[in-house]
Specification:
Blueprint lengths: L6 H8 L1 H11 L4 E4 L4 E4 L9 E6 L2 E7 L5 H42 L4 H15 L4 E7 L6 E7 L14 H9 L3 E3 L17 E9 L2 E10 L7 H29 L12 H11 L10 E13 L2 H7 L2 H21 L3 E5 L3 E7 L5 H25 L7 E17 L2 E7 L1 H16 L3 E4 H6 L8 E8 L6 E7 L5 H9 L1 H12 L3 H14 L4 H15 L9 E3 L4
Parallel strand pairs: 13-15, 16-18
Antiparallel strand pairs: 1-2, 1-4, 3-4, 5-6, 5-9, 7-8, 8-9, 10-12, 10-13, 11-12, 13-14, 15-17, 16-17
C-alpha cells in the first residue's frame, strides 16, 4: 500500500483552484509549504502573521499552512484532500496488484503447460516464487515414489550438496507432505521438527504440491532473516504450486510413456558407430581395433527439439519416424559442412563432435549451430505452409576433453563417446530453454573462439552445475536468432552489459530500471525479464555478503 502522496502536485495542480477560492474568501494572506516549510503556493506576506497549521497524513506532517488563525480551515481541507488522494492511490494499487497476480498466474500456466521436462518446470516454479515473495532461498522437493525419499528438483540461493535427506513425516516439509496443509514458520530454530542443513534460514513457507488426489512434493520459500510471511504469500505460492503440480504430473507420465516406447532408429546418413569411427580416425586412431580408443579435446554440440511432445502427440508412429528423419536431414548437413561428426542420435536431438584440429573446433561448432538454426527456419517454414507444426530447437556447446572408442557386445561393435564435455553440453541445451536462448555456449568455448569475429555473443549467467562448486559462465550466441531479433539484441548490447555489470556490483535498483527498459524494447528477450525479476527480489531481500552472482542449480 502507498504511505504518502505527491503533496506538491496536490497543492500546485489538483487543488489549486480550491485554494485560490478559499484564500479569496478569507481575504487574508495565506501560504502553503511542504514539510520543510518550503513555499509551494500562496503569499509570502503570510509568514509575518506567525500562525503555522500542520497538514496531516497517516499520522505524520506532510506540509504547513501559514497565516492568520482563519488559515486553520485551509490546513484542515488539505489534510482531508490528502487523505482522499491516499485512499484513491491505495485502491488503484490494489487493483493493479490483483491484475498483476492474474497476469502472473496466466504466465506461469502458459510457461509450464508447454514443458514436459520436470526439472524445467521445477526451476520455473522457483523462479516465479522468488520473484514475487521476499526470500533468500527456495527449493522444490519432489517425492521419488520408488525410494520414498524427497529429492530436490530445483533450488535458488543454496548449495545442493551436503543437504539433509528427507522423507514424508521427517522435518517440516515431511509433515506438510503427510497433512497436505501449508505451513508458515516465523523462526525455524524454535520448531522441533526442523532439520538443519548447511544453509542457515530463519523464516519459512512450506506449501504442498498436489496433483489429482495425491501429494507429489512441496515448495519451500525461506529467508535468512525474520520475514513477516502471512496469508497473502501462502495463497500466492499455493496458486503457483497448483499450476506446477499438473504440469509435473503430466511430464512424469510422458517420461514413463517414452520409456515404454521404442526409440526411432538412427538415420542411415550418419549412424552413431560410423560417426564415432570417423572421429576416431581423425584424431589419431584407425578404428580397426575393438578396444582402440583415444582422448582428445573437442567441442561437443548437443541439440534438442523444443516442445517435442507437441509433435510426438500430434502424429502417428510412421509419421513420427518420417518427421524425425526430415528434421535430422535439415540440421545434419551444417554439422558435416563444418567438419563435425554426429556422434550420437537421441530421438529428438543429436550430439555432434568437432575435433579441435588446429584450434578450429569451437569456431566450427558455433558456426554449425548458427547454420543449423538458419536451415531449421527454412524447414519449419515448409512445414507451416503444409499446415504442420513449426519446429524450434535449443543447442548447447562445450569445449573439453572427450574419449572416443569402441566396445564389443555379443560380437557387435558399438561406438561410445565418454567425458564430462558431453554431459556439460547436454546441460547447456537444457539451460537454453530456461534462459530463452537458441544457442548457449560455455565459457570454455567462448574463450577458444577467435577474437575479432562477430557471432553475436553476450553473457547470460554464471551457473554452478549440480555437484560442482566451480561456476560455468553461460553465453548466448544470438547470431543464431532471426534477423530482426539479432539486430535488436546487437543494438541494445551495450545497455545490457552495463545493466549486468550493475547487477553484479549489487546496484539492483539501477540495473532493474535498465533491464525493465530493455524488456520493454525487446519483449521477446527472456534474459532481460529474468534479471529484472532477480533485481526486484534482491531489492526486497538482499543476499549475504558472500554472494558473487552465481546461480546454483539442482540435478538436471
Amino acid at each position: 500500500m502507498a504511505s504518502t502522496i505527491n503533496f506538491k502536485r496536490l497543492v500546485q495542480t489538483d487543488a489549486v483552484h480550491v485554494l485560490e477560492d478559499l484564500a479569496e474568501a478569507l481575504r487574508l494572506p495565506v501560504l502553503v509549504g511542504d514539510s520543510a516549510k518550503r513555499t509551494l503556493w500562496g503569499d509570502e506576506k503570510a509568514k509575518a502573521s506567525g500562525g503555522e497549521f500542520p497538514v496531516w497524513l497517516a499520522g505524520r506532517i506532510i506540509g504547513y499552512v501559514l497565516g492568520s488563525p482563519q488559515a486553520y480551515c485551509m490546513a484542515s481541507l488539505l489534510s482531508h484532500l490528502s487523505q482522499q488522494e491516499l485512499e484513491k492511490r491505495e485502491a488503484m494499487e490494489q487493483v493493479l496488484d490483483k491484475e498483476s497476480e492474474i497476469s502472473l498466474i496466466h504466465e506461469i500456466h502458459s510457461r509450464l503447460g508447454a514443458s514436459l521436462d520436470v526439472a524445467e518446470i521445477a526451476m520455473a516454479l522457483v523462479d516465479e516464487a522468488t520473484s514475487t515473495v521476499e526470500s533468500t532461498g527456495a527449493s522444490v522437493m519432489l517425492l521419488n515414489e520408488e525410494t520414498g525419499r524427497l529429492e530436490i528438483a530445483a533450488a535458488f540461493g543454496r548449495k545442493m550438496n551436503d543437504r539433509p535427506v528427507l522423507k514424508p513425516g521427517v522435518g517440516i516439509v515431511g509433515d506438510v507432505l503427510l497433512t497436505g496443509i501449508p505451513e508458515v514458520v516465523p523462526d525455524v530454530s524454535k520448531d522441533a521438527r526442523y532439520v538443519p542443513g548447511s544453509y542457515p534460514i530463519c523464516s519459512l513457507i512450506c506449501v504442498p504440491i498436489a496433483a489429482a488426489d495425491r501429494i507429489i512434493g512441496a515448495i519451500n520459500i525461506s529467508n535468512q532473516r525474520p520475514a513477516n510471511y502471512g496469508e497473502p504469500e501462502v495463497k500466492h505460492v499455493f496458486a503457483l504450486a497448483t499450476h506446477a503440480a499438473a504440469a509435473i504430473d503430466k511430464a512424469r507420465l510422458h517420461q514413463t510413456a517414452l520409456k515404454e516406447t521404442c526409440a526411432p532408429p538412427a538415420p542411415e546418413a550418419a549412424p552413431p558407430a560410423k560417426g564415432a569411427a570417423r572421429l576416431l580416425c581423425r584424431i589419431g586412431g584407425n578404428g580397426d581395433s575393438a578396444k582402440e580408443c583415444c582422448k582428445e579435446t573437442a567441442s561437443v554440440l548437443f541439440s534438442g527439439i523444443r516442445a517435442y511432445s507437441g509433435h510426438y502427440d500430434s502424429m502417428g508412429v510412421e509419421e513420427n519416424f518420417s518427421f524425425i528423419n526430415d528434421y535430422v536431414d535439415a540440421i545434419g548437413l551444417p554439422v558435416l559442412r563444418n567438419n563435425g561428426v554426429i556422434g550420437d542420435f537421441q530421438g529428438d536431438g543429436i550430439m555432434a563432435l568437432f575435433p579441435d584440429m588446429e584450434g578450429k573446433g569451437p569456431e566450427q561448432a558455433v558456426r554449425a549451430a548458427i547454420e543449423m538454426h538458419r536451415d531449421l527456419r527454412d524447414f519449419s517454414e515448409q512445414r507451416r505452409k503444409a499446415a504442420k507444426l513449426p519446429v524450434d530447437m535449443g543447442i548447447g556447446i562445450h569445449t573439453g576433453s572427450v574419449s572416443v572408442g569402441h566396445i564389443e557386445l555379443g560380437g557387435e561393435r558399438e561406438s561410445v563417446v565418454l567425458g564430462e564435455a558431453a554431459g556439460v553440453a547436454a546441460k547447456l541445451e537444457r539451460l537454453s530453454k530456461v534462459y530463452g536462448l537458441r544457442v548457449a555456449v560455455s565459457g570454455a568455448t567462448w574463450k577458444a573462439l577467435p577474437k575479432g569475429k562477430t557471432y553475436g555473443l553476450r553473457e547470460a549467467d554464471m551457473v554452478a552445475m549440480p555437484g560442482k562448486d566451480a561456476a560455468v559462465t553461460l553465453y548466448e550466441v544470438f547470431g543464431a536468432d532471426p534477423r530482426g531479433v539479432r539486430e535488436s539484441k546487437a543494438k541494445h548490447l551495450s545497455a545490457y552489459e552495463d545493466a549486468l555489470g550493475l547487477f553484479r556490483t549489487r546496484e539492483w535498483e539501477k540495473a532493474g530500471r535498465i533491464f525493465a527498459k530493455l524488456h520493454e524494447f525487446m519483449p521477446f528477450d527472456k534474459l532481460s525479464l529474468i534479471y529484472w525479476r532477480r533485481c526486484q527480489a534482491f531489492i526486497k531481500s538482499p543476499p549475504g555478503n558472500g554472494w558473487v552472482g552465481v546461480s546454483r542449480l539442482s540435478e538436471m
